[in-house]
Design brief:
Blueprint (H helix, E strand, L loop, with lengths): L6 H7 L3 E6 L4 E8 L2 E2 L6 E10 L8 E6 L5 E11 L5 E10 L8
Antiparallel strand pairs: 1-2, 1-5, 2-4, 3-4, 4-7, 5-6, 6-7
Length: about 110
């Protein structure tokens, strides 16, 4: 399995439930809501993010989480809190920065 999810992995999972599992083992349900392409370090890199919305009433802090998709593929990623959505639910983002060509979906 790849060390990070590919852009295609994440695009295919938009709108699906996922799970964030903290280092303590505590976990929460989330939904992958966006996979924006971001500015990379330079032309030899590709950068994108996994943006999730946490379940209602859950707040989380910046930390390393195991990010688990519905098909049980998972990756360790650092998520950072973002703004609350219109329903008051917390969003979190993990930025993924890889060498261009590592995943062909963005080429």
């Amino acid at each position: 399995m790849a060390e990070v999810p590919s852009y295609a992995d994440l695009q295919a999972a938009i709108g699906q439930p996922c799970r964030l599992i903290g280092e303590s083992g505590a976990s929460c349900q989330a939904s992958l809501i966006a996979v924006p392409v971001l500015d990379a370090l330079d032309d030899s890199y590709t950068c994108y993010a996994a943006v999730v919305r946490l379940e209602s009433g859950v707040d989380a802090h910046q930390a390393n989480y195991q990010f688990v998709l519905p098909d049980w593929r998972s990756w360790p990623l650092m998520f950072t809190p973002g703004r609350l959505d219109v329903d008051g639910r917390r969003t979190m983002s993990a930025v993924i920065h890889v060498r261009s060509g590592a995943f062909s979906a963005l080429s």
